[in-house]
Task: structure prediction
Amino acid sequence: MTDTHGHRPAAGAQPAAGARMPSARAEQPGAEPAPAGSAAAEPEAAARGASGGAEPLLDIVGLGLELPGAARPLLADVSLRVRPGEVVGLVGESGSGKSTTAKAALALFPDGARPTGEVRVAGTDVLALRGEALRAHRARTVAMVHQDPRAALNPVRRVGDFLTERLALAGFAGNRAAVRGRAVELLAEVGLPDPARRLRQRPHELSGGMLQRVVIAGALAVGPRLLLADEATSALDVTTQAEILDLLRTVRREHGTGLLFITHDLQLAAAYCDRVLVMYAGRLVEHRPAEALFTDPRHPYTRGLLECSPTLDEAAAGVRPIPGRPPSLADAFPGCPFTARCPGAEPECERWQPRPVPLPGDGMAACRRLAEYEPDGAESGGADAGTDARGAAAGAEGVERAGADPSPGPVAVSAPARRDAAPGPVSGTTEGGAG
Amino acid sequence: MTAHGPVAGPEAAGGAPPVLTVDALSKTYPLPGGGRLTAADAIGFTVPRGGSLGIVGESGSGKTTVARMLVGLVRPDAGTVTVDGRARPARPARGRAARLARAREIQMVFQDPYVSLDPRLTGRQCLLTALRLHGASGAAAEEKAERLLGQVGLGSREGAARPHALSGGQRQRLAIARALAVEPRVLVLDEAVAALDVSIQAQILQLLGEVRRETGVALVFVSHDLAVVRHITEATLVMRRGTVVEQGPTRSVLAAPVTPYTRALLAAVPRPGWDPAAALRAAAPDTP
Ligand code: SF4
Ligand code: SF4
Result:
């Protein structure tokens, strides 16, 4: 993807000599892709202990990013994997670091930032790439789809020129007719009606949804192993969003592409992805199979996000805002970054260095009070969580879930123990506070 | 809300007359190739005092055109907007007094508060300017500015900051405070929470609920987001290509939609167990 958003733009459209024949299919990962249809194809253990399954397309380990002058790291201890055919959601509010994390797959970092840790794409150490190898990586292995397709397309050039350029970038060999034929194929693949005519059109003649299809066709032109979708459907109407999401699912099924799906919308991520990671202040706070996020979110921030997102569900309680605001880069945190907004914060939280606490079954959450809310405590955290939570747990073990006494029951979110205004439904039609 | 009929309003309840009555509002635009685009076709609804009406639709539905006609940013081809029994003239008001009176009827909050805030003024100055224009002065104005800042949850530090130094959520709070400064009868919000972080969006929704209860201002909430509309409105209008396809109490429109288009919109909203392909199949037979 021509990276119009990157801090360091990828090199110009320089078709690398001797490039492979980039028919998307020829690029399929050799290892058998995970059966894409099954949702929880390879839900990976949070602590990343899990091995086996196909080689990850994206493997980020302990990624940190320091920016001179910032009060806190842009990213701290971020680890995530995307396997072939997998859709992994990365969710957070502004400043959470979700886009910064995604761009690490392209080795695109803000000027002056120093990355630490590991970023591997299809086995290649991306942080070590330089020069032509880096350009080739950015041009062919990973493709990015942004929120605004117009930013990715030159307004005065035709759709056909854009695709031709993309194909050249991928080293597509062939005469004009062959290039044209392949471009038509690509547009048909992304579901644009009348593809031959589209080649002659300019961006302003197409709707936002159609343009996003063109951008996705351009991504497919290079046969990428990994697709990064950064708020790729956020600006679209809901019905168009459903179309693009359906298309992306088809792409990963047919090409075995891994998809990292970056969004601010937790409901959307949990509905669409196989696994979801939630970020806050440059850190991962929770990592779960998608269904588990709806039924049993564990980190107080994840719970807060779900509670403050309005839903169509008749039975849902009113929205309950999280007090305060998402942290900026000027906010530093000696301990858990969510302390100031967390209904369950204790003085110890301000000193607790966040780390992933494994959850039984699958996933992790970075909260020191997690063990206390474990339905039947035992297997949850192992030694790690146990020791951390011990001080605070003191006798609270397992009681608060019953919800009888809301006063100390911060993480038992159903209790209306909020420090801000009354939690009544916004509509005001059902007064009475009981949530 | 007791109305069950197709029209949102208190008639069914037999209560006070509506604060806002919109009747047969229409607007067309010439198309480049000839012909005209119907942006709004005979739109009509009422909103009671302290009531809240949602206008939902996708891009091109005409919902923003309707919002703009309400405040007078777009002049309708036909139809009337009546506030408290007084019809608003279609032409822009002439003369200061008429302009101010008009401003006190309907105020608007935009998606991007930048467009309505003067970058040179601090939050407090911005409120004071509006208050003084509308006749408050001296200590009374100062006091009211403080009260407004408090009402929208801005502290004295934010009150002393200029818009660029505020976060998106704080700017939107300021825009709401400025709109409220003139004590309008109706507040029109055009995608006013769409650009905010989820946690901040919830704060603003809660704020609007409080404001409505405390001041009795009526809300017209224009949004693409059905879930948000469900939470903040009692009546809903679903628009498509300039026409109203469905209209009624929010609860019934969103829980038991009668038109295929509303059903398709609802099916496209992600939720647990949601499958985009299934949502599209559900929509396909009826929505060309
Ligand atoms: S309980 Fe403590 S550690 Fe857990 S999220 Fe809240 S503040 Fe952080
Ligand atoms: S002060 Fe504000 S509301 Fe009053 S007329 Fe001027 S812009 Fe309109």
